[in-house]
Design goal:
The complex is a heterodimer of chains A (451) and B (278). Chain A is mainly alpha-helical and 451 residues long. Chain A contains 19 helices and two strands. In chain A, a hairpin with a 2-residue loop joins β1 and β2. Chain B has a single domain, classed as MetI-like fold. Helices cover 73% and strands 0% of the residues of chain B. In chain B, α1 packs across α13, α3 runs antiparallel to α10 and α7 packs across α14. The chains are: A mainly alpha (451), B mainly alpha (278). Chain B: Pfam families: BPD_transp_1 (PF00528). Chain B: This is Sugar ABC transporter permease. Chain B: Keywords: Cell membrane, Membrane, Transmembrane, Transmembrane helix, Transport.
Amino acid sequence: MKQQHVPVTVKPNRERQHRMTAAVLSVVLQGLGQLYNRQWIKGICFLILEAVGLAYLIPRLNQAVWGVWTLGEQTQRFVKVNGSTVLQQGDHSIFLLLNGIIVLLVFFVFLLLYIFNIRDAYITGKLREEGKKATGASASLRYLLDKQFPYLFLSIPALGILFFTIMPILFTITLAFTNYSAPDHIPPAKLVDWVGFKTFTDLIQLKSWSHTFFGVLTWTVIWAILATVTTYFGGVLVALLIEQKGIRFKKVWRTIFILPYAIPQIISLLLMRNLFNGQFGPINTYMKAFGLEGLPWLTDPFWAKVTVVIVNMWIGIPVSMVLILGVLTAIPRDLYEAAEVDGASGFQKFRIITLPFIMFATTPVLIMQFAGNFNNFNVIFLLTNGNPLRGDYQYAGSTDLLVTWLYKLTLDNNKFNMASAVGIIIFLIIASFSIWNFRRSKSFKEEDMIQ
Amino acid sequence: MKKRNNPMRLAISYVLLVIIAIVSVYPVLWIFLSSLRPGAALYSERLWPEAFTLAHYGELFTNPSFMYGTWYLNTLKIAFFTMIFSTLMVTLGMYALSRFRFRGRKTILSTMLILGMFPSFMSMIAIYIILLQIKLLDTHAALILVYSSGAVLGGFIVKGFFDTIPRSLDEAARIDGASHLRVFTSIILPLSRPMLTYVALTSFTGAWMDFIFARLVLRTKENWTLAVGMWDLVSRYQDSNFTMFAAGAVLIAIPITLLFVFLQRFLVQGLTSGASKG
């Protein structure tokens, strides 16, 4: 079917030019288009912002690009001045890189503002062509509060995230492509250079690094699975125990079992570290009282792994229990009644009704818990500190996860480039996992259908 | 409908429940009793001490090399301000994301999700250098800033909760001429009290107990928080100062544990609403 051509009343040519003139003026100088559209206050605001931006960027941008590109050319050195040696400051590669990234980000923000300004001038010009009056400052403000409300609300957290999350992450990612590490490339004495993917190939191919990396990775995966499964099914078991018919004082049991969750984690972990102390800890004391040999809970590679899993159960089961109890109350009673009419046994009811229902409701949480355990810094670091040490590992112990290894590489050993590479790999694993989980979750697909 | 309760099964269940209860309570009881035991050693013959003393609690505040009182106040201050700022930012931001359909919304949601997946210490080095350059290293303001600006990333639970508040409520208010801010303060906030409690409580305890960033940022002993101080005590003296550690641990755990027990209802709601939303 052909669209019928609708004739439009052609306005005088001069009138039609508003949108282009305003836009071009705004391209030339930010805010000029708004002034042309007789939006005085808005135009002046844009002008002032541009002045601020230029004043900030002009002296810095050049230096920033140079800094990011070269990472400095001159190290600090001693020069003779009037017979005495003086330390002359050189380029500090890391400060150059970080400052460069900050300046480029600010540049990016102002670029967005500039584009917004052109677009705004164009739209207002179009409005004028259609014979409507351009909105004044107070109307603009009202518009901002009403229609643009979400942007206004989100701008403050967004700034915080930009400078304390996005920028640091960008910076750290770039570090993985440099040779910033002890002992040869630590500023200010030495310069840092771009090395491309060398850090990653070293991590995978150099025998000493790859052995540690794959060893730690394997244990991290085993740990994440064990920790998630034990706490989850422990939680199911405890919840079912409490919810059984005939059990009395349900509330009391629940409150007692929540206790480990209520204790601050750092306290309970440091406490457990003492409880499992091989020499003086109460657990070994009791075992000896029963005539058993005490176990090397934290000092033997195998038993240390067992200990972290056990302690994690103590901390994690209450959380799962609370979750599952919530799900259990949501199972419709009539399902059970129908099953009883059909003569189902207790176990059959559990297998056919309870378990599928729980699994269905909690799978997303289960996957998030897996991701959380993958990065479970606290349990490992505070309980074993990654120890017992392994001689054949680079700066890692038997219970170290990738994250605690990353922490040690950064803070204790200054292997910043390796640490960043490990961080990127952790991110890739967790991200692919979580995005897959998020996409398949109902709340993402049917978000607008809840309303 | 007749229901047979197998007495054997019930008995076994009760035995299991009692065992789990003992396991849950024992470490707590042990640390509490240890804090009252005379002497400093970790080793003791029996759980129940022969004599009781409050000396370790006094020692916490008088020991010259151990500034427990200062740390307690530091931690309280940091946790309090973090709680205020994070709750404010999270609720406002998530209100905008839950209630408005604007351009870039899905992008923001996905970005938040992705950013949340970076291990938080990946940003450690950068944050350290930034704080060094803006001269905020070793200050409490820096910690509050870092905690609060990171809080928004964990706001999905709050968004999920806001999603469940019927939109007809705020539409009605809008027709009556209420501004968005008004809708937020007089409709959304009162309706989401359990969620607010949950967010406030978790951000408070998070800051109260954070160890990683506190250790990184706070350099001098007077500025430390409890977590850093206690970790130092355990890792440096191991078992020679154990009873003092126990006393310190009890004093740290009491306020948080009480808060948890009293606000249990809200916590359970917060956790479960997070579950059903995914």
